[in-house]
Specification:
There is one protein chain. By secondary structure, the protein is an alpha/beta fold. It is built from 30 helices and 29 strands. The strands form 9 sheets. Strands 12-11-13-14-15-16-17 form a 7-stranded mixed β-sheet, with helices on both faces. A 6-stranded antiparallel β-sheet has the order 4-3-2-7-8-9.
């Protein structure tokens, strides 16, 4: 960070001023300077707030002994001399009456929110830039005492304790509460909390916890009954069976563990049931209750990216209770390459067995081999040497057995739905559940290891069995049913499966949503599938796994056999049905370059599609992790795969992200990441989408180039474009209006007509009016209608028609100019209460959610959110 200690002594400090209007963010913890580029957010104490107001007014710096704040301002390019004036405030809005006089109950700060610093204090502005409230530094500090729901007296006590002599007196504090409430910054906290993103999440969390507790009660009763039955059996036979226990970090049945347990139960006409008790614990009730006095048991873990770190911690806890317990780890994130397997066992001394590939048959044979020694209480892992498909610990060494062929006939695996293994969770409802109707993937993409089954023939479960599994899910009130097939829609029978899901929804009311990964190389059956799911009101957002459209990248990742033009067909199908569609891209693939990645983002814009853009991670079992491939493509990662195992025991995970290859540098990667954030913010969330389309036609700048060029201009002159700078550098962390969207729109007008050279005419004003109308703010009310000089809706529809008609690249040349259209009205609504409940979330935690309002030019609201609400 740049330091400004050179500004001492005091004589120099007194002349320091702020270069431009400053936006302060308030969250539940208090006010802070927003993060910017490589700078972290900086928390502000009440003394800092007072100093900022002084600087804004050109007054002397009040705390010359403490230059931390001055350093932060200097590093952000915010210090200059006091002659730089602040933008004047617009006329204040008419004063609002205080909302009632009854101050019983609790209040909570509506946060986060952005305030603008002026020479007279901190201003809370409305959507149109009018001042709703102006408070001084001490009042701002007092407002943050309502970071959690508090009564006035309790909040006043917190304020006094935090600020001391600078605290407001009681009368001033009480008046402030009324002013904050009138300005919409303080909400009365009811039973569900305030109607904001945080309140919405809290309500959903409470509802989910209540349902989870009901499921846990069912599982507890089931386990108690199983223990009683096992005790009675042991008393009758004089022999206690070894428990086989699935360990999960969720609270729903895990399909992978259910399948391997089902096969083991049926293995060789059920002979393992004489020696093993298969425990249907799908709520992780067993591991936390271990005392260490239990007989040796077998614990099963299925490792995925999202569960592996948790599983390792649970596995260590199991071994800490009794070293004789046997821990078996499988799943697609358990390593299979020899060097990684050695590292895995060294990093995790609590792991006994690692299963490679499909584990259904392997587990059954492991249990059969271990049974004699487990019966003695001293399991002997050397008995596993003849069982193919695994590695196991033998003293200080790791023994690797031979490879195992994949199961040819999937129907040899009994369904855990049909045999009752999943019934322990009861019928109180499940938030989600995974099913599979087939296994395998014919593609060999190097970044992927689809269930350890890449480049394999697709094998199918019997259709009658699939239907029965679907009915179990419907009867048991599954909210979201996710199909785990790699290519749903590749077979004609997938149409029948879609019809069955809709039939069950009509019969039982569940599942409410159905999600799938659609076939990559054919849309032959997808039209019927989409139409069926749409008519049934059950389709979640459609997903297209494109990853990249660049030919060189596709060849490098061995994906060139996938026809990219098939995506256009499906995109058109979803557009015609007015359905939300998202494509998946990957950032940092070997073979890609900075220009090719920008081109991938631009192609999504040309198709008018949302995109999920994932950083490329070096998956442990992917072909990309083969030593020769890594060396050939000069792959560098931010962390090693080994580090993910070492960090996992502490509950966190450090992903081995690919940050450089033979075709892009680390600096290129940083620019890719900035472009990804810009795409999310300006395209997925729509903050600049309408402006960018207009610029595309007027001056020929493609959208991604417009965003890059604007960012460069802002970086070169932040003082001239302060609100645009905040939008590009900090908005993604907070997703709130930059004090007011009017400030952004006014700066955009000057930028577009200045450096970019657009005419300051009625067409520009029309697009700025539309863009402004589509941005959410908490103070807005709906429906909102405006009169436009030009029919923007008609122009926008013509643009979309040209794009879907094969002119995605040259629509700007073929479409009539916006200025050629006559006047029209434009209406915006907010059916999902985005202005109240979706403000303030970090961008990357919700990068494909709805954040623009409903309008004739808005994208289809995501089905998942609209149904869920």
């Amino acid at each position: 960070m740049q330091t400004h200690s050179a500004l001492k002594p005091d004589a120099q400090l007194t002349t320091a001023g702020l270069r431009r209007p400053l936006i302060i963010i308030i969250d539940r913890s208090g006010p802070f300077l927003a993060a910017q580029s490589q700078l972290a957010a900086h928390r502000l104490a009440v003394a800092d707030l007072e100093c900022l107001v002084a600087l804004a007014a050109g007054e002397p710096w009040r705390s010359p002994s403490d230059v931390t704040l001055l350093d932060q301002l200097g590093a952000r390019g915010l210090l200059g001399d006091a002659r730089h004036a602040y933008l004047p405030s617009r006329d204040a809005a008419p004063p609002r009456d205080v909302l009632g006089t009854n101050y019983d109950g609790k209040f909570v700060l509506v946060a986060p929110v952005a305030l603008r610093l002026s020479a007279t204090g901190f201003e809370h502005l409305d959507h149109d830039g009018r001042t709703l409230l102006r408070i001084d530094a001490r009042e701002l500090a007092a407002a943050t005492s309502f970071g959690q729901p508090e009564g006035r007296e309790a909040a006043f006590g917190k304020h006094v304790a935090a600020v001391g002599e600078r605290a407001l007196d009681w009368d001033a504090f009480a008046r402030l509460v009324g002013r904050l409430e009138a300005a919409g910054l303080l909400a009365r906290a009811g039973a569900d909390g305030e109607d904001t993103a945080q309140g919405k999440m809290l309500r959903a969390l409470r509802e989910g916890v209540a349902q989870s507790m009901r499921r846990a009660a069912h599982v507890d009763l089931w386990l108690a009954a199983q223990r009683a039955e096992e005790n009675a059996r042991a008393a009758r036979t004089g022999r206690r069976r070894t428990a086989v226990i699935p360990v999960t970090n969720g609270d729903v049945p895990l399909l992978s563990l259910g399948l391997v347990m089902s096969y083991a139960q049926a293995y060789q006409d059920g002979r393992l049931n004489e020696h093993y008790a298969f425990v249907a614990d799908w709520m992780n009730r067993t591991v936390p209750s271990l005392t260490g006095d239990e007989a040796p048991a077998v614990f099963l873990f299925s490792n995925y990216l999202w569960s592996h770190h948790w599983n390792l911690g649970a596995s260590a806890a199991v071994k800490a209770k009794n070293r004789a317990h046997v821990t078996i780890h499988g799943g697609p994130d358990s390593p299979k390459y020899a060097g990684d397997v050695e590292e895995y066992f060294r990093a995790n001394p609590h792991i006994d067995v690692a299963v490679h590939g499909e584990g259904d048959v392997t587990l059954a044979e492991v249990l059969a081999a271990l049974q004699p020694s487990l019966a003695t209480g001293a399991p002997d892992l050397t008995a596993l040497a003849a069982v193919p498909g695994l590695s196991f610990r033998h003293g200080d060494t790791v023994v690797r057995s031979g490879d195992r062929e994949r199961i040819a006939n999937l129907d040899l695996i009994p369904s855990p739905f049909a045999n009752g293994l999943f019934d322990s969770v009861g019928d109180v409802g499940l938030p989600y559940l995974i099913i599979e109707t087939n296994r395998g993937c014919p593609y060999g993409c190097t970044y992927c290891d689809w269930g350890s089954a890449t480049l394999s023939r697709i094998r199918k479960f019997d259709l009658a069995r699939v239907f029965a599994d679907l009915e179990w899910a419907a009867r048991n009130k599954v909210g979201f049913l996710m199909n785990a097939d790699a290519n749903f829609g590749v077979f004609p029978r997938d149409v029948e499966i879609a019809r069955k899901v809709v039939e069950l929804k009509r019969q039982y009311g569940f599942p409410r949503l159905f999600g799938a990964n659609y076939a990559k190389n054919t849309v032959q059956h997808l039209k019927q599938i989409v139409d069926t799911l749409v008519d049934g009101g059950i389709l979640a957002t459609g997903v297209l796994s494109m990853q990249s459209a660049d030919p060189d990248t596709l060849r490098t990742i061995r994906r060139s056999n996938i026809k990219v033009d098939r995506y256009d067909d499906l995109a058109q199908e979803f557009s015609r049905n007015e359905l939300p569609l998202v494509t998946e891209l990957m950032m940092g693939l070997p073979g890609s370059t900075l220009p090719s990645f920008i081109s991938d983002l631009q192609q999504c814009i040309d198709r008018e599609m949302r995109a999920r853009v994932y950083p490329t991670e070096l998956l442990v079992n992917s072909p990309m992790n083969e030593r020769a491939y890594r060396e050939q493509n000069q792959i560098e990662t931010r962390h090693t795969i080994k580090s993910t195992w070492e960090a996992s025991a502490g509950g966190s995970r450090t992903a081995p992200l690919v940050i450089a290859t033979a075709t892009f540098t680390r600096d290129d990667y940083q620019q890719m990441d900035r472009s990804r954030r810009h795409f999310f913010l300006f395209e997925n969330f729509g903050v600049l989408r309408q402006v960018a389309r207009f610029v595309r036609q007027e001056v020929g700048l493609r959208e991604m180039e417009f965003y890059r060029q604007t960012e460069d201009a802002v970086r070169a002159d932040r003082e001239r474009w302060p609100t645009i700078a905040f939008t590009f550098e900090s908005l993604h962390d907070h997703l709130v209006a930059p004090a007011s969207w009017r400030l952004l729109v006014d700066e955009l007008r000057d930028y577009l007509t200045g450096p970019l050279g657009l005419a300051r005419d009625t067409a520009l004003e029309t697009v700025l009016q539309v863009q402004h109308a589509l941005l959410p703010s908490r103070d807005r009310s709906f429906p909102f209608s405006i009169e436009l000089a030009h029919d923007y809706t008609a122009w926008h529809r013509r643009m979309l028609g040209l794009k879907l008609g094969g002119s995605a690249q040259d629509w700007a040349e073929k479409a009539p100019r916006l200025s050629s259209y006559g006047p029209a009205s434009f209406t915006v609504t907010d059916p999902q209460s985005i202005c109240r409940s979706s403000m303030g979330e970090p961008l990357l935690s919700s990068n494909e959610a709805d954040w623009e309002l409903r309008s004739p030019v808005g994208r289809t609201l995501t089905f998942l959110q609209s149904v869920g609400d």
